[in-house]
Amino acid sequence: MSIEITQVGKNFGDFVALADINLSIPSGGLTALLGPSGGGKSTLLRIIAGLERPDTGRIEIEGADATNVPAQRRGVGFVFQHYAAFKHMSVAKNVAFGLEIRKKPKEEIAARVKDMLELVHLSQFADRLPSQLSGGQRQRMALARALAIEPKVLLLDEPFGALDAKVRKELRDWLRRLHDEVHVTTVFVTHDQEEALEVADNIVVINNGRVEQVGTPDDLYDRPANDFVLEFLGPITRLGGAAIRPHDIEIASVNASPESAAADVTLGRITRLLRIGFEVRVFVEPLSGTDDTVNVTLTRSEARELGLESGQVVGLRPRVGTLIAAR
């Protein structure tokens, strides 16, 4: 089910949460609303769900005006960051809840719950209480409950934010596989750039209540529309006053003859080498004394081949074809 958002605005008192948002969310895709805290992404998600009313504008779901349709009639499944589980109900009863309030036949409910628990790999925990599950299992239960009603649209508000890094990574992979199986139009809010880049088909970058850019992960990472997108979507450093990604900097030893370095090369002295897994981060202080320390990311094999050491003078320049953005 596609979603069309037209000129949507929302204020909370004097605070502008959303300003003239225009956005098309394609049917069957996995779309991330990405941005800093307070940027407006959760407000937009709640407006799509019907949990907030826009001050201006229009929401259409599969071509039908849903702007004034109550949340319970929009055919939307919503998953919150903190699960919102019914603590006194078993896992199976939690998943069945939405079907029961819709007065579905008992046989249909039982079959649907069985299918959903199998889908999220929780069949063996059907009779447990939510408190007896891990955080990752509770989040999978919440997703099963949302999917049980066969929603037109699945909305996730920072679904993995309360989990530790390892579980978050596992659930990101699982969500991507799950989406590829069920193909429901899914929109999720996150402020985690890696999460959006890894999981989403399309990313909507939102800042200060406005859409900065919409595109695929590759589009946004390789061709950012402005400095904000470049700086928000991945690490950056500055070389010659321009923003650039640390792995897009070429480094070469010029100890033998620094004065012979090419005009496009920035000379600097290595102040620190930091190995993190397969990466080596090189911190270089420009000899000009006017620029901040430049951070360069190399692979371990690249660093070994260059024979880099602290105190060494090196030359820095953007790799061929690299996009840089002037300050």
Radius of gyration: 24 Å
Largest sheet: 6 strands, mixed
| CATH level 4 superfamily of the largest domain | P-loop containing nucleotide triphosphate hydrolases
Query: Helicity, in percent?
Result: 25-40%
Mean pLDDT over all positions: 88
The low-pLDDT segments are: none
Number of distinct beta strands: 18
What is the N-to-C order of secondary-structure elements (H for helix, E for strand)? EEEHEEEHHHEHEHEEHHEEEEEEHEE
CATH architecture title of the largest domain? 3-Layer(aba) Sandwich
Shape: elongated
Which topology of the largest domain does CATH recognise? Rossmann fold
Beta fraction of the residues? 25-35%
Give the tally of structural domains: 2
Separation, N- and C-terminal Cα atoms: 41 Å
Assign the structural class, choosing from mainly alpha, mainly beta, alpha/beta, alpha+beta, or little secondary structure: alpha+beta
- The CATH C-level class name of the largest domain: Alpha Beta
Describe the strand arrangement of the main beta sheet, using strand numbers.
6-7-8-3-9-10
Number of helices: 9
Structure in words:
The structure is a single chain. The chain contains nine helices and 18 strands. It is 28% helix and 32% strand. By secondary structure, the chain is of the alpha+beta class. Strands 6-7-8-3-9-10 form a six-stranded mixed beta sheet, with helices on both faces. The mean pLDDT is 88. The protein is elongated and about 75 Å long. The two termini are 41 Å apart. The chain folds into two domains: 3-231, 3-Layer(aba) Sandwich (Rossmann fold), CATH 3.40.50.300; 236-326, OB fold (Dihydrolipoamide Acetyltransferase, E2P). Helix 2 (91-101) crosses helix 3 (106-119) and helix 3 (106-119) crosses helix 4 (135-148). This is ABC-type quaternary amine transporter. Keywords: ATP-binding, Cell membrane, Membrane, Nucleotide-binding, Sulfate transport, Translocase, Transport.
